[in-house]
Every structure is written in structure tokens, then in C-alpha cells.
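The pair is set out directly below:
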Amino acid sequence: MSKTASFGVMHLGTAFGVTYLLTGSVSIAGAVTFVEPLVNTVLHYFHNKHWDRVEAWARSLLRRRQPQMA
């Protein structure tokens, strides 16, 4: 759990630092630092749903291609 937490802190620091360097604004950097992970979480949910469908489709193709045992 501590590895995950330290990665989260690193991610927030990176988001803040990069945004601050690009904009020079502490307020914009702060907003992006907290908005980006929220958007990323939502996108991750839909990304996983999509890949679940892709994997199910691939499994169905493999089942169709396997010779039927009598």
C-alpha cells in the first residue's frame, strides 16, 4: 500500500510541476493537479469496460475456432 501511496504523491507532484512550468500559474497548476486524476479515474473505468468486451469477443472467437469433440 505504501508503494501505491508514494506513486500517487509522485503523480500529483509531477502534474503540479509540469502544469506550473507550462503555465506559470499556481492556481491553474493546482486545479489541474486535482482535476486530472478525477478525469483519469472515470476514463480508466470506461477503458476497463471496453477491454472486458474485447477480451470476451476474443474468447468467443477462440471457442468458435476450436474443433468440436464428438
